[in-house]
């Protein structure tokens, strides 16, 4: 029997995929797996029992990835599962910043009791007039699951799209329309674009990337959209740009005291992934990842350990070893197995930066002290008998 805990609302269609071998527990200390969305986990202590954390979403800046790796906890996310939901809200954000839709709706609400509201509306509407997206330049920074979808959709709206992503994956590049103009210097986007949208993860290298200097280079009347993370933007600098009349609007999905209620800012309460479809997709993918890891030892879509997929085990037993990516570790593991007179039927060893993973199918049952011997190796983090 395995225990799982949820720190946030996880769609039932996903948790229903747990078999009767799993039960939900309230106490995270008793969990073999944790499902999380945006809850902050940096200050949490993890028990030895915890095998995996699945982020039902894309961004993992709420999880201490390296500490988890050191403690033998595999962290997963659900790439692309909520990307369409975010894309649709970004398009809505561009429209909200271009036409005074909110101002117009507020005016109608405030004048609802006026019997001549129709006549009054015709008089007042010029104050809510805006501009169109067609023909404008959109700069997309980060062309992953979301950025690539935003770029392609904006082309259909008649926008000219510039894309910047020095680390674009082959998969994302294949999905990107060839009509998206590739730029290798992000400043080209700052200088030329009427709309700039951010779709990069919050990493040390991206935090504050929309700096004061970046804001100063931006085109007069630019609209900045941030559905990625607020840490990416020097929001004070952006608000100064708005006050000075240079920046038309800042659309952000991250409410904080700096932006909430500020003039020229449209703030939504982290709604990017809040659609039934995205919540279902994320929950399903997260539960499948956890089950595949717990039941088969396979690691798919981890953000702190390498990918490793050996399918279901048809051999007598399967051993999973999370370890440091250090010289001699694999040889030490295989020699312990060899000394125990156990034949290796199949094996995969993968590494990712300083961590590695060895998955081993064996032709016979595991001798009693084999796990303890592997566990005693200095570079081994966690050994698990999967079967
Ligand atoms: N508002 C919301 O509810 C949501 C927000 N997000 C945020 O959006 C981010 C992006 O999500 P996805 O597109 O699904 O992730 P992704 O991993 O598919 O794409 C991220 C892209 O950013 C690129 N990148 C990394 N560093 C860069 C840099 N310095 N300059 C330009 N490009 C860079 C990567 O190469 C990658 O192509 C997430 O990390 C998360 O923070 C994601 C989902 C929902
Ligand atoms: O779970 C959510 O609603 C937040 C989604 C998000 O920010 C992400 O996937 O990175």
UniProtKB/TrEMBL annotation:
Pathway: Amino-acid biosynthesis; L-serine biosynthesis; L-serine from 3-phospho-D-glycerate: step 1/3. PROSITE patterns: ACT, D_2_HYDROXYACID_DH_1. Pfam families: 2-Hacid_dh (PF00389), 2-Hacid_dh_C (PF02826). Its EC number is 1.1.1.399, 1.1.1.95. Keywords: NAD, Oxidoreductase. It is an enzyme of class 1 (oxidoreductase). Residues 318-387 form the ACT domain. SUPFAM superfamilies: ACT-like (SSF55021), Formate/glycerate dehydrogenase catalytic domain-like (SSF52283), NAD(P)-binding Rossmann-fold domains (SSF51735). One of its GO terms (molecular function) is phosphoglycerate dehydrogenase activity. It comes from the Bacteria. InterPro entries: ACT-like_dom_sf (IPR045865), ACT_dom (IPR002912), D-isomer_2_OHA_DH_cat_dom (IPR006139), D-isomer_DH_CS1 (IPR029752), D-isomer_DH_NAD-bd (IPR006140), NAD(P)-bd_dom_sf (IPR036291). It catalyses: (R)-2-hydroxyglutarate + NAD(+) = 2-oxoglutarate + NADH + H(+); (2R)-3-phosphoglycerate + NAD(+) = 3-phosphooxypyruvate + NADH + H(+). Belongs to the D-isomer specific 2-hydroxyacid dehydrogenase family. Catalyzes the reversible oxidation of 3-phospho-D-glycerate to 3-phosphonooxypyruvate, the first step of the phosphorylated L-serine biosynthesis pathway. Also catalyzes the reversible oxidation of 2-hydroxyglutarate to 2-oxoglutarate. This is D-3-phosphoglycerate dehydrogenase. It comes from Shuttleworthella satelles DSM 14600. The gene is pdxB.
């Amino acid at each position: 029997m395995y225990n799982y805990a949820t720190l946030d609302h996880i769609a039932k269609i996903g948790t229903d995929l747990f078999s009767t071998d799993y039960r939900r527990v309230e106490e995270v200390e008793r969990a073999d797996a944790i499902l999380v969305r945006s809850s902050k986990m940096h200050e949490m202590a993890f028990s030895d029992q915890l095998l995996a954390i699945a982020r039902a979403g894309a961004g993992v800046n709420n999880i201490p990835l390296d500490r988890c790796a050191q403690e033998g906890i595999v962290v997963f996310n659900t790439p692309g599962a909520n990307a369409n939901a975010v894309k649709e809200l970004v398009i809505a954000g561009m429209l909200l910043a271009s036409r005074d839709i909110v101002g117009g709706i507020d005016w109608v609400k405030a004048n609802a009791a006026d019997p001549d509201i129709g006549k009054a509306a015709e008089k007042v509407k010029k104050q809510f007039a805006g501009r169109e997206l067609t023909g404008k330049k959109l700069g997309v920074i980060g062309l992953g699951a979301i950025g690539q979808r935003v770029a392609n959709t904006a082309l259909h709206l008649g926008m000219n799209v510039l894309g910047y992503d020095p680390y674009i994956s082959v998969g994302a590049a294949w999905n990107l329309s060839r009509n998206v103009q590739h730029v290798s210097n992000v400043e080209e986007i700052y200088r030329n674009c009427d709309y700039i949208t951010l779709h990069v993860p919050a990493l040390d290298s991206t935090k504050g990337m929309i700096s004061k200097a970046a804001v100063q280079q931006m085109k007069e009347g630019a609209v900045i959209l941030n559905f990625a993370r607020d840490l990416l933007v020097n929001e004070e600098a952006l608000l100064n740009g708005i006050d000075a009349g240079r920046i038309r609007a800042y659309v952000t999905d991250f409410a904080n005291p700096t932006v909430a209620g500020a003039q020229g800012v449209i703030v939504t309460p982290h709604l990017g992934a809040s659609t039934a479809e995205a919540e279902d997709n994320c929950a399903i993918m997260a539960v499948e990842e956890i089950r595949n890891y717990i039941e088969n030892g396979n690691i798919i879509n981890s953000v702190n350990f390498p990918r490793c997929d050996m399918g279901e085990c048809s051999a007598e037993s399967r051993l999973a070893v999370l370890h440091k990516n250090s010289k001699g570790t694999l040889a030490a593991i295989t020699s312990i197995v060899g000394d125990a007179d156990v034949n290796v039927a199949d094996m995969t060893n993968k590494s990712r930066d300083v961590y590695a993973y060895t998955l081993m199918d064996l032709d016979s049952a595991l001798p009693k002290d084999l796990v303890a011997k592997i566990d005693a190796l200095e570079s081994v983090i966690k050994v698990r008998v999967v079967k």
